Amino acid sequence: MRSILYTLLISVLVLAGCVSQRVTPLKTMSDMQYPYPVKLAALDNTISVAYMDEGSGNQTLVFIHGLGSYAPAWKKNIEGLKNEFRCIAIDLPGYGHSSKGDYVGDMRYYADIVAEFIRKLDLKNVTLVGHSMGGQIAVTTGLSYPELMNQLILVSPAGYEQFTNGQRQWFREILTPDAVRLTTVTQIRENFATNFFHFPKDAEFMIQDRIAMRSADDFRWYCDIIPKNVRGMVNDPVYDLLPKLTMPVLSLFGEYDNLIPNRFLNGGSTVEVAKKGSSQIPQSVLIMIEKAGHFVQFEKSEEVNAAIRGFLKA
What we know:
Blueprint: H1 2-13, E1 39-42, E2 48-54, E3 60-64, H2 75-81, E4 86-90, H3 107-120, E5 126-131, H4 133-144, E6 151-155, H5 165-174, H6 177-181, H7 185-192, H8 204-212, H9 219-235, E7 249-254, H10 270-278, E8 284-289, H11 296-299, H12 301-313
Parallel strand pairs: 3-4, 3-5, 5-6, 6-7, 7-8
Antiparallel strand pairs: 1-2, 2-4
């Protein structure tokens, strides 16, 4: 049973899937090719946040990736929305092209980073769009800095599912930097399927990058930040704080999300978790997307983009 739970947790943490093993190794994680030009915002704490900035409009969308992911995971959403909105996708510190180091990595830390980033770029009419862990970061930011944003869009957000104290302790103990570092290509392939209803071929770039980054000099910091992120999510739960959100919130879930709820710890259906969490928010809209998994914004990008567009123009 423990091995099953361990495999499930790793599947949440590491992007994986079917991919050719002919992958060019990376010298640094910043050598990864992104779909749009990458800019750097130098924050006051010596951290540089990498971001892609495309499109224009009266409203600005700031996209926050999930655990083990990076800014290019939003490329279909940027492409579909950039003609109507300014679209900015960031790499969180510890990920992608952003700074690497011995960071705290909890949700409040990232909320402070997102707030400083918004101020640094002097962004107006902001909507935070967060996927999975990025959704929990968006909620935490919305609670701490409500004056910096108009709305939240939460895509398969962490934080709606509740865990017991014992379950939280298990999450804290089970994952180590070595567990991330030693993930094999086979495990990467097998685990990635859990993020999708049907794995799309055009998601292979994520898998190739995940395999290639293992040779990067700064990969150790990626392995270090992921366990810290997991501890941060369980140490800073947001479910009981959802009623305090003061802005409109759109929640989007794939109906076949294999990660929410945790199938072994809690069981039940995704729609039950989605409805329960969304119902706690005063100004809430919930949309379930058919035939989609945890990575709904990529798997069903047109439907997600339409939902975002409708929510922002309502």
